[in-house]
Amino acid sequence: MNRSGIPLRKRLLVRLLIASALIAVCSVAATAWLAVQTTTQALEEEQGQDLAADMKILAQLSGYAATHPDWKGVGPTVRALAVKTGRRIALTTADRTLIADSAPHGSPLPPGAAATVDPLHTDTYTERGAQLSGIDPRAVGPYRLTADEQSKLSLVASKVRQCLTAQGEQVTVERTPSGRPVLTGPDGANLDRLSYGCVSDELDIPTATEKTALAALADGARTCLEQHGQHLGTPMFAVDLANPSYLGRYLVAGFAKLGNARAVREAQPCVDSALRTQLDPYVAPVAELFLGGGGTVAPRFDMSPANKAKIVGAAGLVLAVTVAVTAVVATRLVRPLRALTEAARQPPERHVRVPVTTRDETGLLAVAFNALTERRERLEAQRKAMVSDIAHELRSPLTNIRGWLEVARDGVVDPDPALLASLHDEALVLQRIIDDLQDLAAADAGTLRLHPEPLSAEELLGQVAAAHRVAAGTAGVRLRTATAGGPWLDADPVRMRQALGNLVSNALRHTPAGGSVTLAARRDGDEVVFDVTDTGTGIAPEDLPHVFDRFWRAEKSRSRRTGGSGLGLAIVRHLIAAHGGTVAAASEPGTGSVFTLRLPAAPAGRHGGTEESE
After folding, report:
1. Neighbouring-strand partners of residue 275
2. Between the chain's N and C termini, which has fewer beta carbons within 10 Å?
3. Of 110, 140, 134, 87, whose CA–CA distance to 288 is shortest?
């Protein structure tokens, strides 16, 4: 009989056995496949070498296309590459018209092209062995420096190199495809010549040839930019002349309306298109590359009956061992899970724990279950204490009201104004407790509604201070406000006055006559910070973590000497959290306390000086 009530096919043990069997079958099959694949490893390595050779062929032919206006004279290059790589190489136009072929005349082409040779759209130079999208850096066209310009820049680069070498730097002079010399360090990176004092403006500004080509590029991009709503003013060019990457990546015109990164990104396609149009006469037309020969096809395999029998026998043995091991492991896994199930079925008031016997996932689950049980037990104790606290808080004013009404009804006392005022005060206490409980219930249920609006921190502090000025004067406490910078925030003014009012009321109750309470506000980054500081009795370190708990008081005797229902600070925490802020308390016994509220600042605030009022 299945006492667990779980169908056999859904039990964890059965699932583990099925999964293990499938894993075993797949493992055996994969092992057999890998064994056969070892016979073709050498052939696959040869194919990898052929692929590397193919990329070298494509890179060399792309370089030829980038530096020649047509394909005339490419024949010797094709034949030399074919001899070097042992591959058949053929070039055709897009409509399959033959340009050059290393094979004898009349040989049929391979069924499909291996690659397209297009230096204006494919870059095989920047990263060896890869095809990148972009213009081949070797396609420089009108940007190629004249012999005189190259000679002049080489002389300047040599002098700068001598300057850097004299300061202990290892410098190499390299030449970009356009003929411009570049100074690089041991790691191939460009050197910061300015920091060494080895500066030469001639290496950083365009030559006459480059200026002419750049002006033509600006004219070519003009129409495209204007179609996108970008006015073309006087062209200025941000040129990284030391960058060996192709020109289109850094020749972005610095026009009048391209003063931000987004505009530059929008202009880049126009500049790239104009650059391709500018370089088109200097590069060979697009061609299709066909490669043949030198490839090896991995042979298919066929196992003999003896090999098949061996694989079937090995599979059966592995399957049997796997099932046995899985059965043992699954049984050990299921045992603690059953203990957890039994513990979970016990009545909640028993708070049953389970023993932790392992350190695996099941053990972690047992630890989490015990932690949940302890937390549930703790919450149940807190719930009982809270119910007791609520009953106590409601009983006191109700008892007073009932008692006075009864003696007034019996004629013991007259309902004079003093008695009525006392009953009214008790009713207000009762109403405040009920309102506080209602606010906390709304916060717990997530139904606490806020009506945020732009709110001046200075005005908010003034309103709170005005509301408590009489109470502060009666208590003999000095009430001050201070605002730095005139911060603004988006908040519900009623709820913020309630939160700050609770803090001020709390501070006034715990500050003796002659002391002071200060309300301060300031801007701190993206936050507005409110501080309510008093010079009262302070809070003991062991009591500080509990000040925001409901019905908590430092007076363990539950005395009402300092007033309050024990809910004010808890309400403050919920109200500030609803605004997306945080509240913290710091105190030193005998010195006073500081309650700090942090809330998000308004996106556009006002600025002002520091003001203080009393």
Report:
1. none
2. N
3. 110
Alpha helix (H) residue ranges in 111-169: 147-166
Q: pLDDT (tens digit, 9 = 90+) per residue, 76-130?
A: 999 999 888 888 999 999 888 899 999 888 888 888 888 899 998 888 888 877 7
Task: Give the contacts of 471 (CB within 8 A, at least 6 positions apart).
Answer: 505, 508
Q: What is the pLDDT of residues 454-505, one digit of tens each?
A: 999 999 999 999 988 988 999 999 999 999 988 999 999 988 988 898 899 8
Architecture of the structural domain at 361-438: Orthogonal Bundle (1.10)
Neighbours of 413 (CB within 10 A): 12
Name the token pair of 361.
Answer: 């996932």
Among residues 524, 463, 548, which one has the least CA distance to residue 498? 463
158 close to 148: Cβ distance less than 8 angstroms: no
The structure tokens listed for 100 are 């050059």
* pLDDT tens sequence across 333-387: 777 777 777 777 777 777 778 887 766 667 777 888 888 888 888 777 767 766 7
8 Å CB contact between 552 and 546: yes
Fold of 449-613: Heat Shock Protein 90 (3.30.565)
| Residue 268 and residue 276 in contact, taking contact as beta carbons nearer than 8 Å | no
DSSP string, 263-328: HHHHHHHHHHHHHHHHHGGGSPPPEEEEEESS--PPPP----HHHHHHHHHHHHHHHHHHHHHHHH
Domain boundaries of the chain, sorted by first residue: 1-135+284-329, 142-282, 361-438, 449-613
- Number of residues written out for the chain: 614
Question: Which residue from 455, 583, 608 is spatially nearest to 529, judged by alpha carbons?
Answer: 583
Q: What b/e readout covers 243-277, taking b as 16+ CB neighbours within 10 angstroms?
A: ebebbbbebbbebeebeeeebbeebeebbbebbbe
Specify burial of residue 144 (Cβ count, 10 A radius: 0-12, 13-18, 19+): middle
HEC profile of 248-272: HHCCEECCCCCCCHHHHHHHHHHHH
CA 325 – CA 323 distance, rounded (Å):
6
Question: What is the C-alpha end-to-end distance of the chain, expressed in Å?
Answer: 82
**Alpha-carbon torsion (160, 166, 168, 172), positive or negative:** positive
CA–CA distances in Å: residue 237 to residues 227, 231, 272, 306: 21, 16, 14, 75
> Is the dihedral angle over the CA atoms 212, 216, 221, 223 positive or is it negative?
positive
How high is the pLDDT of residue 532? Answer: 95
User: Six-digit token pair at 224?
Assistant: 């495209």
